[in-house]
Recover the amino acids of this structure.
């Protein structure tokens, strides 16, 4: 092997290393990791949406007078399943906020419904209702866990596309935009007020 061939080989290796260090591979890898975590978030929300009709049907029999809250739960679920966001839209703040707001409405109406069921001792004693309530609580924990992991993946991706040298490949080759992460709702930092003197 002559010197020129060795020099060309060394230059090719150096060029390959410099390209690898410019986000050519790391940016799409981290983007796909964040999208995979997003799929976990969607799966957890879908699990909740699937459980809601069962909860509503179970509560209807014992709490017929609470029709308004049951209707609110059904409508919130309907709106939440209608607001779709694909993994390709995770960098669109408006679409992300609409999705997050719709899911937040479901959580709020479920909380109201579960609070109302405290007035129905016969419902609270039913094994089916208790199992369903446990499933919903577990699902809320899954949602929180999936959102936390998604936020970590988004932070990793967003940091990668903003830091040198990966930002070179992210901007020039991929045209990467920061992804949206979940944020706490306004007032979430304040503890809820508990009043045991309120009328039942």
């Amino acid at each position: 092997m002559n010197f020129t061939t060795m020099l060309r080989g060394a230059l090719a290796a150096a060029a390959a290393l410099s390209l690898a260090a410019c986000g050519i591979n790391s940016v799409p890898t981290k983007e796909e990791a964040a999208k995979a975590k997003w799929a976990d978030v969607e799966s957890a929300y879908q699990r909740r949406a699937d459980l809601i009709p069962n909860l509503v049907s179970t509560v209807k029999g014992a709490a017929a007078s609470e029709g308004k809250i049951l209707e609110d739960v059904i409508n919130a679920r309907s709106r939440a399943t209608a607001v779709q966001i694909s993994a390709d839209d995770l960098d669109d703040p408006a679409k992300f906020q609409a999705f997050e707001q719709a899911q937040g409405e479901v959580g709020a109406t479920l909380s109201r419904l579960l609070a109302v069921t405290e007035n129905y001792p016969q419902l609270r004693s039913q094994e089916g209702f208790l199992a369903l309530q446990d499933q919903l609580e577990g699902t809320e924990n899954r949602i929180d866990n999936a959102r936390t992991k998604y936020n970590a993946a988004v932070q990793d991706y967003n940091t990668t596309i903003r830091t040198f040298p990966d930002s070179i490949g992210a901007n020039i080759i991929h045209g990467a935009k920061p992804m949206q992460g979940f944020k706490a709702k306004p007032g979430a930092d304040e503890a809820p007020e508990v009043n045991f003197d309120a009328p039942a």
